[in-house]
């Protein structure tokens, strides 16, 4: 179904764990050239991931970059393009809660950490990638694309203490619509995969009792699995599947909330 992903050059930020790694697996399985990224490089882990993804059929390379830093965003794009000769697909997946704070305790440092991790990182990654995506579309005659990982929190405000995180994801959902207006002429598409509650390290620290209560609030009665989210990235990335789809948000949340 995603056969046209073969040989496509895809950079996935935040992809040594969780949904980013699951997305990297599906692209590797379809013969893509995959750049994986993390802010840290624990070599044993990275080596194992590279071995696994290569065995699946991908041409895979790891790039360490802390996307909280704009200079690292620029270098990541440069390094990826130098390695693979261009870029066809950017997936802005790196992100996280960045801590919980009630409104009355929020200071500038907290605000900047959460916004930089989830919003500025995607903004800068997209900014530096645009010239390469534009070139990809012009040379291939197919659309290039940016996919960002949003969140159900963007739609419903997030849990107590996670308001800035939720707002950062709503910011991302919204700015995609602006980018559609600016870059559709360049044949670049922009779409969001918006997960609900997915079983990753994101939920580390929650008690079994809390996890059970959350699961019971989901119509499907359970957390999602990373491999249940990954095909949504492949769908948006495939020109054959989604060449006429841009500016959309795909919720993958077990029915947790109606869009
Ligand atoms: P995860 O913690 O399993 O993986 C996060 C990945 O991002 C890791 O590879 C980590 O190394 C990387 N990363 C973290 N900070 C980074 C930085 N500064 N620079 C570069 N890489 C960095 O998380 P996950 O649950 O798979 O989350 C992936 C995305 O999905 C995030 O944007 C998150 O906000 C979003 N999300 C998660 C859920 C959920 O329930 N798990 C729900 C909605 C949205």
Automatic annotation (TrEMBL):
What are the record keywords, sorted? Oxidoreductase
Which Pfam families has this protein been placed in? adh_short_C2
**Which molecular-function annotation in GO is an example for this chain?**
oxidoreductase activity
The record's Gene3D superfamilies line, in alphabetical order, gives: NAD(P)-binding Rossmann-like Domain
Q: Which family does it belong to?
A: Belongs to the short-chain dehydrogenases/reductases (SDR) family.
Kindly provide the name given to this protein in its UniProt entry: 3-ketoacyl-ACP synthase
- Organism (species): Vibrio renipiscarius
């Amino acid at each position: 179904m995603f056969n046209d992903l073969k040989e496509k050059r895809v950079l996935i930020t935040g992809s040594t764990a969780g949904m980013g790694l699951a997305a990297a697996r599906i692209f590797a399985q379809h013969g893509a050239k995959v750049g994986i990224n993390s802010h840290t490089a624990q070599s044993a882990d990275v080596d194992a991931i590279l071995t696994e993804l290569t065995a699946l059929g991908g041409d895979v390379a790891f790039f360490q970059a802390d996307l909280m830093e704009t200079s690292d965003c620029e270098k990541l794009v440069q390094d990826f393009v130098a390695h693979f000769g261009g870029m066809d697909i950017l997936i802005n997946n790196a992100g996280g809660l960045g801590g919980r704070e009630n409104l009355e305790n929020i200071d500038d440092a907290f605000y900047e950490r959460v916004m930089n991790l989830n919003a500025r990182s995607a903004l800068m990654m997209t900014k530096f990638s645009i010239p390469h995506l534009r070139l990809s579309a012009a040379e291939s005659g197919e659309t290039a694309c940016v996919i960002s990982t949003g969140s159900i929190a963007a739609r419903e405000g997030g849990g107590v203490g996670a308001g800035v995180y939720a707002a950062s994801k709503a910011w991302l959902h919204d700015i995609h619509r602006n980018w559609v207006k600016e870059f559709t002429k360049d044949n670049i598409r922009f779409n969001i995969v918006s997960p609900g509650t997915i079983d990753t390290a994101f939920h580390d620290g929650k008690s079994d009792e809390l996890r059970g209560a959350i699961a019971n609030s989901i119509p499907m009665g359970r957390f999602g699995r990373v491999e249940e989210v990954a095909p949504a990235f492949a769908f948006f990335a495939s020109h054959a599947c989604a060449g006429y789809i841009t500016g959309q948000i795909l919720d993958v949340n077990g029915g947790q909330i109606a869009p």
